[in-house]
Design a protein that fits this description.
By secondary structure, the protein is of the alpha+beta class. The protein contains 13 helices and 26 strands. The radius of gyration is 24 Å and the shape is globular. InterPro entries: FAD-bd, FAD/NAD-bd_sf, RIFMO-like. Its cofactor is FAD. Keywords: FAD, Flavoprotein.
Length: about 550
């Protein structure tokens, strides 16, 4: 039990499949998602919003125990906006953009996640995972295409060329269920991954950290603070984050030899916190856990008609906030592709690009997370000497501050190597290259202030800058046209005014420039002038129709 949160309990209902006659055919569902954590619920929402009926199974009857995932990055907030629950997360959570790193008590490095204004969402919002799951579940309940069943445990999976047969265990018995497509989001230990005999490979780091959630009223700012060798925890490191409800997350490095069970005892935890905060600070211990670093992934995330996402597919150490953020970006990538395949618009090979693109993202996250972990917990004398030298030099020399690594934070992956991209045929400046996630910008639509990303996504979108005439050819999927004009231009209903000129500047757009945006808001192609044949070819490439 927590003092700041009451866990909901969701009702189990006897599955109707158990009441079918013995000769009844095994029921079949188009999509089954396993795991009602953040990634699984987000997957169900994404697919339901695409118009697909989804059955979501979970072996528990409540949200996650403890705060667990905490930091949600700007890109994730933008995806959650499109799923209908981003604002709830921002309203409840703690917004922050600044992080500071200290050696002993001296600040040696700081960063600002939002280097430039003109984005609707902040760099990061902190919120306990159980709140995120609660908001996602509220949104899922609003969508008629989602059926969620609690206390339904998948105990068997038999894939075939047409999907997979599941054996589902409940309090009333076991029943069989066929799925045309199975999305696996059942967490880092993934029972389904084990049932299928699939491996997850990588590195487990020999260090342990204590997580302590503490309820207190403190005057620390809403920033990320990280200490190397602080006076209250010599020779180790400490991380401090603010959460909702006056809860603060404190992570203490323990070392590999620490006993995880012993370190979780309040008589061990409370003195550590008191030494950090001082005797005059009153606090209450809310939740405690001990974890180790892991950086691992599956070789492929697609196995026929079984698709893995989130921690079931890839795991990283928590410094950098890359776990839940990466998992939600997985389902953002997967949803539109699965819809296109089920509708017969695209071949099943389009789903290979889900694995290809998200493996690139996982490798990027693992690479950054591994570097952070090596810096925070050096495992050799040479590594520790280098780390300490960098920290010492960072006190006075700017070049060394760039080498300080207390956790490079989650950023979206630029899918520049994706086979779905159409390469530029003409020069462009800036970072909105094919494969990049589209940057947000303030716009005005129908006389009301709005944001560019709220006008793009869910389906393919053609951004047309200026008044250039276009005549859309026949396309394999619906295509929304969003025209973006400069302030002072004559507009008709639905057209966007680039109120601060940021959309054009970030896209290096001139009058006549056209961008093709994927349903997940990544750039698929761009041209200096509209060309119907080029658009058809780019759509075909983005859908693997070539």
């Amino acid at each position: 039990m927590l003092s700041t949160y009451t866990y909901p309990s969701f009702a189990y209902r006897r599955p109707p499949e158990l009441d079918a006659t013995a000769d009844a055919p095994v029921p079949r569902r188009p999509v089954v998602v396993v795991g009602a954590g953040p990634v699984g619920i987000a997957a169900a929402i994404e697919l339901a919003q695409q118009g697909l009926p989804v059955l979501l199974l979970d072996d528990d009857d409540t949200v996650s125990i403890g705060s667990r995932g905490l930091c949600y990055a700007q890109r994730t907030l933008e995806i959650l906006d499109r799923q209908g629950c981003g604002q709830a997360l921002v309203d409840k959570g703690v917004t922050w953009n600044v992080g500071r790193t200290f050696l002993d008590t001296e600040e040696v490095f700081h960063f600002d996640l939002v280097a430039e204004a003109g984005h609707e969402r902040p760099g990061m919002v902190n919120l306990q995972q159980y709140y995120l799951e609660e908001f996602l579940l509220q949104r899922a309940a609003e969508l008629p295409g989602i059926e969620l069943r609690w206390k339904h445990k998948v105990v068997g999976v038999s894939p075939d060329g047409a999907g997979a047969r599941l054996q589902v265990e409940t309090a009333d018995g076991v029943f069989a269920l066929d799925a045309d497509w199975l999305v696996v989001a059942d967490g880092a230990r993934s029972p389904i991954r084990r049932l299928l005999g699939l491996e997850i490979e990588g590195q487990v780091f020999k260090d342990r950290f204590l997580i302590a959630d503490v309820v207190m009223k403190a005057d620390f700012p809403a920033e990320r603070w990280f200490w190397f060798d602080p006076p209250f925890h010599r020779g180790q490191s400490v991380l401090l984050h603010r959460e909702a409800d006056n809860v603060w997350r404190i992570d203490f490095q323990l070392g590999w030899d620490a006993d995880p069970e012993e370190e979780k005892n309040p008589e061990r935890v409370i003195p550590r916190i008191r030494q950090m905060l001082g005797d005059g600070c009153e606090f209450e211990l809310e939740w405690v856990s001990v974890y180790t670093f892991q950086c691992r992934r599956m070789t492929r995330f697609r196995h026929g008609r079984v698709l893995f996402a989130g921690d079931a597919a890839h795991q990283v150490s928590p410094f950098g906030a890359r776990g839940a953020n990466s998992g939600i970006q997985d389902v953002d990538n997967l949803g539109w592709k699965l819809k296109a395949v089920i509708d017969g618009v695209a071949p099943e090979s389009l789903l290979d690009s889900y694995s290809d693109e998200r493996v690139v993202a996982a490798d990027e996250n693992i690479r950054n997370s591994t570097r952070s972990t090596d810096f925070i917990t050096p495992k050799s004398r040479v590594s520790k000497t280098f780390r300490n030298a960098v920290l010492g030099l960072a006190r006075q020399h700017p070049f060394a501050r760039a080498l300080v690594n207390s956790g490079r934070l989650s950023v979206p992956t630029f899918l520049t190597g994706s086979a779905l991209n159409t390469p530029d045929a003409e020069p462009f400046d800036g970072w909105m290259v094919p494969g990049a996630p589209l940057s947000d910008a303030p716009v005005v639509r129908n006389g009301q202030a709005d944001w560019l990303l709220r006008q793009v996504g869910g389906g393919f979108t053609l951004l047309v800058f200026g008044d250039a005439a276009i005549e859309l050819p026949a396309t394999p999927v619906p295509l929304t046209v969003r025209r973006v004009k400069q302030p002072g231009s004559l507009v008709v209903a639905g057209e966007l005014i680039d109120s601060e000129g940021l959309a054009a500047r970030r896209c290096d757009a001139r009058p006549g420039t056209v961008y093709l945006i994927r349903p997940d808001q990544h750039v698929a192609a761009r041209w200096r002038r509209f060309d119907a044949a080029a658009l058809q070819a780019a759509l075909a490439r983005a859908l693997c129709l070539n």
